[in-house]
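This part of the workshop introduces the protein records we will be handling. An example says more than a description, so a record of this kind follows:
>
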Amino acid sequence: MKTINLALGIHNHQPVGNFDFVFEEAYAKAYKPFLEILKLFPSVKIGMHYTGIIFDWIDRTYPELIDELRLLADRGQIEMIGGGFYEPIMPVIPDYDKLGQIEKLNRFIHEKIGVIPRGTWMAERVWEPHLPQTLAEAGMRYTILDDTHFQYAGLQENELFGYYVTEELGFSVNLFPISKKLRYTIPFQDPEKTIAYLREHATEDGNALAVFADDGEKFGIWPGTYEHVYTNQWLEKFFSLLEKNSDWIRIIHFSEAIETIKPLGTVYLPTASYSEMQHWALPVKSYRDYEQFENDLKQNKLIDQYGIFVRGGFWRNFFVKYPEANRMHKKMLRISRRLHQLQAPANPDDEEIADMIHTAQNHLWASQCNCPYWHGVFGGIYLNNIRYALYKEMLLAEKFLDVIDHGSSIAWHTVEQTDFDADGSQEILIETPKLNVFFDSERGGTLFELDYKEIPMNLADVLMRREEGYHEKLIEFHRQEEAKKTETKENDSGEIASIHDLVLSKEKNLHELLINDSYRRHSFIDSFWNDDVTLDCFYKNERENIVTMYGPCASDILKKEKTLSVRYTSAIRMGDQDVNLSKIYTVEPGTSILNVAYEIMNASGKILNTFFGTEINLTLLAGDADDRYYYADGVNVTDKKLRSKGEWEHVERMGLVDGWQRINIQLNYDRETRVWRYPVETISLSEEGFERVYQGSCIIPFWNLRLNSGERWKLNIQLSLSREI
């Protein structure tokens, strides 16, 4: 009789900072019912991976689930799989953080479940060739990757029914290839199709090994899957079929496979992730070209033969595609280096310092959670609450390091001119006990990070509106009224569409909000314009009649006894007129105030008649919440919500309030001003379809200037932060 081995794996994860109700839903609809069904089939063995984020939440909220895992592990039905505690993309964090995160999750599993993992889950299956050394040093004997990784190395599908050995500098680790076919049949297609696939690849010698490993959220959280998997009993039917066919399907753990089956050979894998991820990493045009090319191969029935030569981008290019992700990443690395340097000379007998370093380390590791550093079919970087959480973790780590470095002083400061984001240009970074203010000298001397450490929060974390490769699908969706045709429901065959194939929209007419920005959403982006320009020109990014100073600026750092200043100067030509602009940012250590002083000079030989304004992009996370709102002294603010759009006149003081965290961002102008405001909203994909996400609010104070030749005009804007609301 022909037989086959089958190794099964489930990966459960939620991001740092995800809402508690999301954890609750995932627990109720996926994590708990999956184990309840699994317990009914004791012969079904599964490798289980939970990230430390979920383990922490379960341990606090439903500790009985951990007791169940321990019971299942004791009877050999589940094998616990390790990994980075906070689910980092392993190749893009330092080696000492890789080892620390793996050890932290191993320790938790050993203490709570009584076993030590022998294998590791790679977040998003992102692989780079240097990883075997770190995994081996961490005591990991295996990891699980996609079959596409192996195909990119030249292996054929029939060579992937087993596992391989790879090494780096003599450090070896075993690699299991996940079947893409099984990822798409389980749990979306009739269980019989999986059984038929296994029967097709069973062998006389019984050494063939098929591998399935994928997200546990597929079993209850993805659209339509709870009804499909549990109400309609897909999972019970699948497990029943595995038991019914146990005479020729041998279910084994990954560690068991290493002990009982010889490896198929040695392999050296290129950089890779699963094929969809590599598609998502491509720039927009390449994203669409890839999609078209792959469709052409499918239509011409060439994909099976040549598909292994079709691959998308490199995961790290998300840092190019989304500069906001790059800056988060480089900030994380900066803190990691600072922490690592502090650890070396630390006195182990100083318990207070050791505790602070340990706490800072955990906050840093939490900030390495991969979710907001990329985007695909899930929200990822577009979810402002996830970015907020990572910045918060980084800033909490910094607060402990600040105390170690500076003690209780409230007057310390640092100023540094450095290539912060590794783009070849210098940024200027000012750090004080209460604020971090970071400036981009290559982009108009703009402010790109404003950290209010008392919360802590990056108030300047506003994502720009940009074109995505999948936006064409949204336009087509509305054009053809696809919503009626693509409802998430089972078809007559009892199958359900994969999330990768669905086209859903959470609101009507979202295609009308597809607006792409020309500039990153920094603050104090300075522009000049004429009477033809309206608020909608800024909102819709119709900037033909707007002259924006967004290029390289001359800069110098001014230090006084009690203040630090950064001065930017630039010259701009508007038609046949020349204008010189000076902008000086000033911070006083120990305060939460940023002063911005402007001086504009008409350097041409005739009268300058223009409007001047500056775009200030800030976020308090929620655009519609009643406890987040605008105020403006002396103005009848009829719509206070941060998602509102409109104009105010005669403003000298205004602000934004967050009642949840008690934040008051106040803007004071020493000249009466008109103010435009509008919400910055992106349209992106999530598990539930296309959605609108509030990223922040753009505030544009502006003035009408009439300057004679050589005349100067001055302005001071004070941005102050407080907890008084």
Notes: The longest strand covers residues 663-686.
